[in-house]
Write a structure and sequence with these properties.
single chain; alpha+beta; 2 helices; 6 strands; 21% helix; 41% strand; globular
Length: 131
């Protein structure tokens, strides 16, 4: 399979769609359609899970009432199997908490004429440095 020449446009459109769905409680459950029942992996703050059911269980267990992702950069790379690597940096605002920086990486794999999230790695950017 060749490199996808539209990798940048696809990665950026995916990112906008993903966070629009995530930030809206009415559509958050639809994120399940973006994962694969067996071939998707999520690493959330170091905790790893596999498959749509476990991933959605984790996402639904998060305790915020409101959330807003503010994306500051999206970097996309084509992969030799037709997939796309997407690196996202931004700020995350939950409830009345102060904004926190985050980083999220996605590997999008081709699935017919669309893609699914094969790998999703999320981390808050916290710098705990001993004084």
């Amino acid at each position: 399979m060749a490199l996808n020449p539209n990798f940048n446009q696809i990665g950026e459109m995916f990112t906008k769609q993903y966070y629009a769905m995530f930030d809206n409680p009415a559509t958050r459950g639809e994120l399940a359609k973006l994962y694969n029942a067996e071939q998707s992996f999520l690493s959330f703050e170091g905790q790893q899970m596999q498959g749509t059911a476990k991933i959605m269980e984790k996402l639904n267990s998060l305790t915020f009432q409101t959330i807003n992702h503010i994306v500051t950069s999206i970097d996309c790379h084509p992969m030799f199997d037709g997939g796309i690597l997407v690196n996202v940096m931004g700020q995350l605002k939950t409830d009345n908490d102060p904004p926190q920086s985050f980083m999220q990486n996605f590997v999008l794999k081709p699935n017919g004429d669309s893609f699914f999230i094969q790998h999703d790695v999320f981390r808050l950017v916290l710098h705990n440095v001993a004084a």
